[in-house]
From TrEMBL:
InterPro entries: RNA_pol_sigma-70-like, RNA_pol_sigma-70_dom, RNA_pol_sigma70_r2, RNA_pol_sigma70_r4_t2, RNA_pol_sigma_r2, RNA_pol_sigma_r3/r4-like, WH-like_DNA-bd_sf. Coiled coil: none annotated. It comes from the Bacteria. Gene3D superfamilies: 1.10.1740.10, Winged helix-like DNA-binding domain superfamily/Winged helix DNA-binding domain. Residues 123-174 form the RNA polymerase sigma factor 70 region 4 type domain. This is RNA polymerase sigma-70 factor (ECF subfamily). Belongs to the sigma-70 factor family. ECF subfamily. Residues 24-91 form the RNA polymerase sigma-70 region domain. Keywords: DNA-binding, Sigma factor, Transcription, Transcription regulation. Transmembrane segments: none annotated. It holds the Pfam family Sigma70_r4_2. The keyword Ribonucleoprotein does not apply.
Length: 185
């Protein structure tokens, strides 16, 4: 039975019980990979970034206070790793696999229309790639990672209202790009 909360585990890691990091890794490595993959579009780079996030958790464990949610602190570190990676790689090309992301953004397509679905997903993939990094990030955090607006606000160091506005604007931008692409084909 695994009754320890994420905060309690991280506080133990902070106190020197580094073996507890394994439990946190088991709980969050897939979630982090999903976030980083949808932001970078590259599975190999995303795997490396996940490893870097957990390395930084160990390196900067002294900064974890336990006052806020562990998950918020983790995503803050993940964003920094992502920014560092983008700066190091000088913006490599994005490629998005949005099959399971599509339903969370705005309704799925009937499963019996697989060709139509593939075409729609390709358009959605192109539309996501055209969004700014900031717009794509709030959509991934809110729709794919299913974080609450208050959690996103803490990660982005802004207000919940600002997050709501950013998500709304990003959804409108995505919709505009998507519909324009759909009419062009």
């Amino acid at each position: 039975m695994n009754a320890l909360t994420d905060n309690a585990l991280m506080l133990r890691v902070k106190a020197g019980d580094l073996n507890r990091m394994g439990l946190l890794f088991e709980r969050y490595h897939r979630e982090l990979f999903g976030f980083l993959y949808h932001m970078s579009g590259r599975p190999d780079v995303s795997e490396d970034m996940v490893q870097t996030v957990f390395y930084r958790m160990l390196k900067y464990r002294h900064t974890f206070t336990g006052n806020g949610a562990f998950r918020t602190w983790m995503y803050h570190l993940a964003r920094n790793v992502l920014i560092d990676t983008v700066q190091q790689n000088k913006r490599s090309a994005h490629h998005y696999d949005v099959a399971d992301f599509a339903d969370r953004i705005g309704g799925g397509l009937p499963a019996d229309e697989s060709l139509h679905r593939e075409q729609e997903l390709a358009l959605l993939r192109q539309a996501l790639a055209k969004l700014s990094d900031e717009q794509r990030e709030v959509l991934v955090l809110s729709r794919y990672q299913e974080l609450k607006y208050d959690e996103i606000a803490r990660i982005l160091d802004t207000t919940e209202g600002a997050v709501k506005v950013r998500v709304h604007r990003a959804m409108n931008a995505l919709k505009t790009i998507y519909l324009t692409s759909e009419h062009e084909r």
